[in-house]
Amino acid sequence: MILHEPRKRPEKWEALRARVKHRWMIPFVAFEWVWDWVAFLLSNWSFLEVLEYLGSFSILIGVIFYFSESGDRIKQRHYQAWQVINTAQGKGGSGGRIDALQELNEDRVPLVGVDVSSAFLQGLKLERANLLRADFSAADLRGSDLKSADFTYADLHSANLRGSDLEGTSFEHASLNEADLVGSDLAGANLDDADLGGADLRQTSLKNIQWQRLKSVKMANIAGVKNAPEGFVEWALKNGAIQAQDNNQ
Questions:
Q1: DSSP code of 106?
Q2: Which parts of the chain register pLDDT below 70?
Q3: Which CATH number fits domain 90-249: 2.60.40.10, 2.160.20.80, 3.90.1150.10, 2.60.20.10?
Q4: Which residue of 32, 53, 76, 171 pairs with 194 in a disulfide if CB–CB is 3.0 to 4.6 A?
Q5: End-to-end CA distance of the chain
Q6: According to the model, what pLDDT value does residue 247 have?
């Protein structure tokens, strides 16, 4: 917006002086009159108008560059997120990986093959994430939201998934042996060719799971499972699962 606007020529000093009723006001009126003339002269200086146009133009150029470089900024952000994840690989604790993983997933970046084994990732939110062949072994994922994530061929052995939302999640060919799934929600999960050997499934919701092609449930604890599909409990016990309640858990 151009603010430059020519001003009206100030009246002559004699005319203005004649209208001043009190002598003590004359210095203040004179001071104001001088600056009125300065403003008048500057308002008619074309150079200032050019500067205003140039200022507006520079803002426009800045906006154009900001949006033209948005792709590079996104790439840089993704690079930094991957750097956080890879630098902390194999270490305990979070190391900033929760925010990094969630940021990448929000931008729909595939997390194929990501290695966060043994990481502390409680409360992780990776809904619909592509985690094909990812390594979450021994990771602490208690209370996480992993709805509809794809863990096909992923390694989750010894992972702690207690109280997690795994509704509609795909665990095809995934390793879940010795995983802690107590109280989690596996409703609608795909467990085809998954290994649940030694997993703790107590109080886990198994509503509408795909289980007919389960690879192993040997020594899996299915005590108190909820909404299990018809025939699942009988099949699991026949194939080595156990029902062992522990009041301390």
A1: H
A2: 1-7, 40-71, 247-249
A3: 2.160.20.80
A4: 171
A5: 68
A6: 47
